[in-house]
Give the backbone structure.
Amino acid sequence: MHADEFSRSGGSEIAISLAERQEQTKRRRREKARVLSVDHCQYANDADLKKLAERNVTAVALPTTSFFSNIPYIDAAKWRNSGVRTAIATDFNPGSSPSNSLWFAAYLALTKCGFSMPEVYAGVTKNAAYALGVENTFGVLKEGGAANLVAFRGNTPEDFFASPLGDHVTFVVRS
């Protein structure tokens, strides 16, 4: 669900109301793929974010929208303090965010939003998988699990951000 991107429109409140419905138990929410995540949330307030966290709904930061549309970047400290699970994505949209570079979105989340490196890594892997309802299949490396990997030049975790364009990728493995 898109919510509170350009103003506090009430979108987060609608998502919270939907997540509170009787049929939105954790099991049914996972099976039916309902109210798993809320995108944008630039104007969601502290109470909205806390309620999303309490209802196990993932908030998705889309920092490329802020870059291209000159709207405020997410305040990572506010999201962190609320306890909401955070995913990070691009919001690839020709009108407001004409970039599909996850590296650029991750770079902006780190440098403009104030997310830490571990938060960014979780945001583009396990938390992104959770937002899509595929956390049992994707998002983490585990023995015996499927492995979709992107390898890039570098020797340290910080080298992930060597290029916000992702042009330092050496190969991709998809199982």
Notes: Residues 105 and 111 are 10 Å apart (CA to CA).
